[in-house]
Predict the structure.
Amino acid sequence: MNNNLFRAISFRIGIIFSLSTIFILIIMGLFINKLVMHHFETQDRTQLEGKIQLIQNLIQQNPKNSPELNLYLRDALVGHHDLMVQIERPTGKVLFSSAPSTINTQHLTKSANNSWIKWKIQDKTYRGMIYNTDINKNTEIQSVRIIVGIDTSEHLHFLNDFKRQLFYIGLAGTICLMFLGWFATWRGL
């Protein structure tokens, strides 16, 4: 009798229907994952570009590396616990850093398909940008490099939970559709 079940056309149609559903759900899940990642990148880019403009403005207003500039920069970063900023000269001399340790520009990984850089500090992954700018200091132009990054831990945690929930929903939906496809075929034949 078990052998007859596997030979039944209703069972075969149910399996084909289920495999088609699984394929469609996988493609849909990959597409949704890519859209959510793009959304996070856009949000991060907007936030980082805003901070770069603020930092650049503060540096223009205070061209000397003074304690006041450090105070203004620290005030600008209040409430942004996931944001990391480092300002340095092209020679590598650090003028300001909100990081617990200095960001070594030699260990930054540049993304292949966009302008993002990535690095790790204390088991946290950061995604950010490097912005080079010139400041006018008493008719002398000096260059500074602004490195800004945002902790992506919350994004990754959300994506992992989201993927798991999508998997469970897809699995439950596939089982229901498999049963309904088998039942419809069995009743129709």
About this structure: Strands lie at 83-88, 94-97, 109-110, 117-121, 124-137, 140-151. The CA atoms of residues 132 and 145 lie 4 Å apart.
